[in-house]
Description:
Shape: rod-shaped
Strand order of the largest sheet: 1-4-5-9-8-7-6
CATH superfamily of the largest domain: Bira Bifunctional Protein, Domain 2
Radius of gyration: 44 Å
Order of helices and strands: HHHHHEEHEHEEHEEEHEHH
Structural class: alpha+beta
CATH architecture of the largest domain: 2-Layer Sandwich
Helix content: 40-55%
Strand content: 15-25%
Number of domains: 2
CATH class of the largest domain: Alpha Beta
Bound molecules: 3,4-dihydroxyphenylalanine
Amino acid sequence: MTADLHELEQRASAELAQVSDLQALEQWRLRYLGKKGEVTLAVRSVGQLPPAERPAYGKLANEVKGRLEAAYEARLEVLKQEEVERALRAAAVDVTLPGRRPAVGRLHPSTQTLREIYHIFTQMGFQIYRSREVETDEYNFELLNMPPHHPARDMWDTFYINKDVVMRTHTSPGQIHVMRAYYPEPIRAILPGKCYRYEQVTVRSEHMFHQVEGLAVGKHITMADLKGTMIHFARQMFGPERKLRFRCSHFPFTEPSVEVDMDCILCGGKGCSLCKHTGWLEIAGAGMVHPVVLRNGGYDPNEWSGFAFGMGIERIAMLKNHIEDIRYFFSNDLRFLGQFH
Ligand code: DAH
């Protein structure tokens, strides 16, 4: 009978040595040391033996039970320790790994273009002046020489806030603000900002876009100053070879008025799809500030003169970066926006 106990101890010990996690250890415990475990049952079976065999068997059974319990406790400690170490390893940070790069935001292409334009004009001594996006009808139209019902107002499809207040359709009303703020100083300013038009959204037109207005007011300002300024700008922005052409036009707030064209940056003037086979790209409207506008700004047109221009920033950015559809600018597609570094 005691041979059975030795065999049982050996088997239990061998199995215990194979146990490699806490779950398997618990199964082992139930199998041998649990209420119905083999060792427990062996100890209890002493009573059924012939009295003569009881002492020796009982002693050995208790010894086996004690040794297996001790071995179980020791194994439990080892496995618990291993578990802790595994958890620590899993949570460990390898400080030698390269860091993770955070996603980097970029400036919007309109902002980047605006900043390039600021750079070029501030080097020529222009200051940057900001004026409001919500304007009165008076500033957006009347003071710019467009009385109510003037047909030129049709050039701008307007968002009205109410009958007297509009979302500005161009940056030109800023001319009046800056003149009224600086009279009687001479002025060299650019006025950047958002403009709004109630337009059909197409490849070429958006509800909201940016313009930069330019205004110079002084005692001896001539059309030659306007030409020189525009040529310098175009060559800084689009390359030193650029040629400009000043084509007669009409704006109510300038006299004379011109459209400023630049030789096509794609074909150099030969004619291509970008310039619609004309060889020229329109980049701005401009002219000499109309006497009525000077007077509305507080400057006597008999003493003062000035030039002004206005250009669309998305248009400039489209030409510069070969972008074919203005709607990309404000549709917030990162595949588009991420291309401008
Ligand atoms: N305000 C005009 C527009 O939005 C652009 C413009 C033309 C501005 C001629 C000017 C200018 O200052 O002189 O269409």
